[in-house]
């Protein structure tokens, strides 16, 4: 079976997409697939010329254009099977405000937030996190504790998108949980605790070797908290309509309350990424999982 891997893209996460694709292509080759990689969008014409040669597309695209339903809609139009979430789930999960609204309706707490557009007048009473709505990898994100920090935070955020989320800053510990579909069920992986030297899990702390945050897997927390976090991640996965895999981020405050932050529908899948780390700890074969997901859609 021949598989096309889409990667690159035009978002600010283009470089990460290539890193993810490198690992995914290696896994697909290892489990016996014939694989060809395409740099999107420049090689879309080439793909269209060859599309009848492929049984399935694996989109390894992060951020705007790749994780927001755009490429998924393109593949739906072609009637080409593909991995990961469909158009609606991708679009809702990518819009951080819509995702928070969806998850809040399921009874999971999420920090109060307001959507900001260019020119909006905004004042805050306590620390907030300013984040671009269509971005991942903590790009353009700032924690604002003082009024004089707001202008710079907004300016940075608007470099990455036209809509920002101003979200209450939750003091506590940060956790991330991958969810995979295996054997027809959504299963939460081991909880990972993220301990960031800067207090904000930045792009550099995720991907740059000598600056990486501490990622403890499995997290050294009580069984009760681990179960509650895993249940929340599974609920987010199902409520958003995510398919095959997701990774959801949470804060836990001093009282043990869980706060939902966001869900990634195509989480980073580099060899060092959080979800691949949790797969290794859990004893899962990543290539075999990819194979099972492909077989479920073709």
From TrEMBL:
The cofactor binding remark recorded in the entry reads: Binds 2 magnesium or manganese ions per subunit.
- UniProt binding sites for Mg(2+) 1: 249, 262
Share an example GO biological-process annotation for this protein: peptidoglycan biosynthetic process
Q: Which GO terms describe its cellular component?
A: cytoplasm
Enzyme Commission number(s) of this protein: 6.3.2.4
PROSITE patterns associated with the record: ATP_GRASP, DALA_DALA_LIGASE_1, DALA_DALA_LIGASE_2
Q: GO molecular function: any one? A: D-alanine-D-alanine ligase activity
Ranges of residues in domain ATP-grasp? 100-295
EC class, as a word, reads: ligase
Which keywords describe this protein according to UniProt? Answer: ATP-binding, Cell shape, Cell wall biogenesis/degradation, Cytoplasm, Ligase, Magnesium, Manganese, Metal-binding, Nucleotide-binding, Peptidoglycan synthesis
Subcellular compartments: Cytoplasm
SUPFAM superfamilies per UniProt = Glutathione synthetase ATP-binding domain-like, PreATP-grasp domain
Instruction: List the catalytic activities from the record.
Output: 2 D-alanine + ATP = D-alanyl-D-alanine + ADP + phosphate + H(+)
Q: Tell me the route in metabolism or biology where this protein functions.
A: Cell wall biogenesis; peptidoglycan biosynthesis
- At which positions is Mg(2+) 2 bound? 262, 264
Q: Which cofactor does it need?
A: Mg(2+); Mn(2+)
Active-site residues, Swiss-Prot/TrEMBL: 13, 137, 273
Q: Which PANTHER family match?
A: D-ALANINE--D-ALANINE LIGASE, D-ALANINE--D-ALANINE LIGASE B
Reported function: Cell wall formation.
- Please state which protein family the record places this protein in: Belongs to the D-alanine--D-alanine ligase family.
Q: What is this protein called?
A: D-alanine--D-alanine ligase
Q: Which gene encodes it?
A: ddl
């Amino acid at each position: 079976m021949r598989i096309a891997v889409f990667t690159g893209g035009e978002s600010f996460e283009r470089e990460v997409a290539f890193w993810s694709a490198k690992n995914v292509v290696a896994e697909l080759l290892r489990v016996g697939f014939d694989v060809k990689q395409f740099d999107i969008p420049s090689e879309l014409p080439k793909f269209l010329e060859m599309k009848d040669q492929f049984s399935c597309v694996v989109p390894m695209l992060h951020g705007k254009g790749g994780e927001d339903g755009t490429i998924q809609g393109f593949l739906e139009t072609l009637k080409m099977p593909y991995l990961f979430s469909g158009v609606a789930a991708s679009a809702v999960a990518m819009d951080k405000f819509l995702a928070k609204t969806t998850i809040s309706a399921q009874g999971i707490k999420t920090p109060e937030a307001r959507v900001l557009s260019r020119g909006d007048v905004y004042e805050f009473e306590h620390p907030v996190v300013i984040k671009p709505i269509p971005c991942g990898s903590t790009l353009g994100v700032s924690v604002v504790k003082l009024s004089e920090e707001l202008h710079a935070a907004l300016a940075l955020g608007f470099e990455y998108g036209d809509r920002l989320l101003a979200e209450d800053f939750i003091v506590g510990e940060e956790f991330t949980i991958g969810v995979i579909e295996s054997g027809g069920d959504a299963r939460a992986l081991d909880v990972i605790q993220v301990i960031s030297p800067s207090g904000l899990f930045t792009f550099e702390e995720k991907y740059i070797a000598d600056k990486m945050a501490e990622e403890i897997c499995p997290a050294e927390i009580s069984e009760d908290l681990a179960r509650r976090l895993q249940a929340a991640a599974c609920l987010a996965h199902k409520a958003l309509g995510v398919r095959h895999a997701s990774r959801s981020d949470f804060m836990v405050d001093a009282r043990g309350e869980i706060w939902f932050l966001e869900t990634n529908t195509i989480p980073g899948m580099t060899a060092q990424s959080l979800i691949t780390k949790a797969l290794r700890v859990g004893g899962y074969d990543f290539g075999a999982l990819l194979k099972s997901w492909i077989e479920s859609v073709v």
